[in-house]
Design brief:
This protein is of the alpha/beta class. It folds into 4 domains: 50 residues, no CATH class; 46 residues, no CATH class; 189 residues, 3-Layer(aba) Sandwich (Aspartate Aminotransferase, domain 2), CATH 3.40.640; 119 residues, Alpha-Beta Complex (Aspartate Aminotransferase, domain 1), CATH 3.90.1150.170. It has 17 helices and 11 strands. Helix 12 links the parallel strand 4 and strand 5. The chain is globular.
Length: 514
């Protein structure tokens, strides 16, 4: 290679390095590029979210789909961040639900705390994977300390433990997985990890209420037990599990030779926020030697409540607990935890791999969290909760959570005072309110159509984002009041709009109700 060729090769190498350096965060070109990018994105987000006039811009699904299809997905030579942000401002950023808006009251979809958003930046930059210690180092021990803090709040035993998860679906799955394997080992001395399901697995039964989360059935199907293994127990007038029907179902199951092995209690049903009688369930589980799993994805935040914490009484006797932080703990999705009263039960999912968590590491005390999770690669979500608890403080957390409970109670009172409304859960246990616009002269079919139409038109107008649900075949509207910034002024404005749209739709001769 002559001197000219060498100089050209060096120039090419420098160009390539400069191009790559500007794409990664490091001590050179990447620092300036990162600073520039975060400033641009922050400004754009501030511009978009500063307008709180509407929780949703009002575009139809078809309109959004059309806009997204017009986006250029990949470029050959690359593009600038400025150009890209310009392209997605209307198509993506402004087409989102503004969950910070106080009139976004549809689902268990919270506005995330600012400390948690900052934590997201940190954990995303370091990109730890929580499966092995040499990928997560300090993060491993912080997650362990956060789990210890949680088990103390739930008053679990000294043998307790847990892991952070993606949310309720994964946590409920893990609870039933451990319950199944523990039962099979104890009842048949059968190791499912090694030998698969035993021949009599079709006799296994799980009990939960009719209002339990759908993931109980979903987990049963994925665990090879089938949805028919789930026995649904009736609920009472407050949508809590009926103890009398539970005992009847247990007697029936046992009389015909089936094998109940797990009882799932719900602490905060999706629609009503109802809480099953946990103390009674714990007693029944103990009597019948059932694994007691509590799905507290919604209601687990009561550990921080000043006014409602007593509703968790009995949860400390659970074998396993689901708790989500992307609901009433105000964390960005996804962030949840799965807790067990005896962490020795994690042996049913324990596996080792020489490249990741070799047995030799365990012998010298190195902690690899993959041994306690059904996930391998996993984010450092514990950092978000840690930073939120430190910066916000448990007192302000309690004030935010309890404030939403009071808001739900005040909302029920307001709805009851309005003539054309009816509300189902007149004494909400958490912060969900299920109601509908119900003029007396309309039949059930027209009322269902009317409430669907009201929800749709208010969504499309951007006046409110609220949910609809079915109760005994009838369509109802639902407020899920997670946002501490939502006030009775917001609620009254939404209710008044419901009345206006309802009256207009009826006056229209019902044309839009078919």
């Amino acid at each position: 290679m002559n001197s000219t060729e060498k100089r050209m090769d060096v120039r090419k190498e420098n160009v390539d390095r400069f191009t790559f350096d500007s794409l990664f965060l490091h001590g050179g070109e990447g620092i300036a590029a990162y600073d520039h990018a975060t400033r641009l994105v922050s400004k754009k987000l501030i511009d978009v979210l500063s307008d709180e006039s509407k929780p949703y811009i009002g575009k139809s699904p078809a309109a959004i789909e059309h806009e997204i299809k017009q986006l250029e997905i990949a470029t050959e030579q690359g593009d600038t961040l400025e150009n890209l942000l310009g392209d997605i401002e209307e198509t993506i950023l402004k087409s989102n639900i503004n969950i910070f808006n106080p009139k976004s009251v549809a689902h268990l979809h919270c506005p995330p705390l600012l400390p948690a958003l900052v934590a997201e930046m940190i954990l995303t930059v370091f990109n730890q994977s929580m499966d092995s210690w040499d990928q997560s180092t300090a993060a491993t021990y912080l997650e362990e300390e956060m789990v210890n803090w949680l088990t103390r709040q739930f008053k679990l035993s000294s043998k307790s433990g847990g892991t952070f998860t993606s949310g309720g679906t994964q946590s409920n799955y893990m609870g039933l997985l451990l319950a199944r394997d523990a039962f099979c080992m104890k009842h048949w001395q059968h190791n499912i990890q090694m030998d698969g399901l035993p021949g009599e697995a079709n006799k296994l039964r799980i009990l939960c209420s009719e209002s339990a989360h759908f993931t109980v059935k979903k987990s049963a199907s994925q665990l090879g037990l089938g949805e028919r293994s789930v026995v649904m127990v009736k609920t009472d007038e407050q949508q809590r599990m009926c103890m009398q029907d539970l005992q009847t179902k247990l007697n029936q199951i046992e009389e015909i030779g089936l094998l109940p092995f797990a009882l799932v209690g719900t602490c905060g049903t999706t629609d009503f926020g109802s809480i099953d009688p946990l103390e009674e369930l714990a007693d029944i589980a103990k009597l019948h030697k059932l694994w007691f799993h509590v799905d507290a994805a919604y209601g687990g935040a009561l550990i921080l409540s000043k006014s409602h914490a007593d509703q968790l009484s009995g949860i400390e006797q659970a074998d396993s607990i689901t708790v989500d932080f992307h609901k009433l703990f105000y964390q960005p999705i996804s962030c949840g935890a799965f807790l067990v009263n005896d962490q020795r039960n994690f042996r049913f999912i324990h596996h080792t791999a020489d490249y990741l968590n070799p047995e030799s590491d365990e012998e010298i005390g190195i902690v690899h969290l993959v041994s306690k999770s059904t996930q391998t690669t996993r984010r450092f979500d514990a950092l978000k909760l840690f930073m939120s608890l430190r910066i916000v403080g448990t007192e302000r957390f309690a004030a935010m959570i309890d404030g939403t409970f009071r808001l739900a109670q005040d909302t029920v009172k307001e709805i009851e005072e309005r003539e054309a409304f009816t509300v189902i859960n007149t004494k909400p246990e958490l912060n969900a309110v299920v109601f509908r616009f119900q003029p007396a002269f309309l039949n059930d079919s027209k009322l269902n159509d009317l409430n669907k139409a009201i929800q749709k038109v208010m969504f499309e107008n951007g006046e409110a984002v609220m949910a609809k649900t079915a109760v005994n075949g009838a369509t109802f509207l639902k407020f899920t009041l997670l946002n501490p910034r939502t006030t009775m002024k917001d609620i009254n404005e939404i209710l008044t709009k419901i009345e206006e749209h309802g009256s207009r739709l009826i006056a229209n001769g019902g044309k839009n109700l078919d």
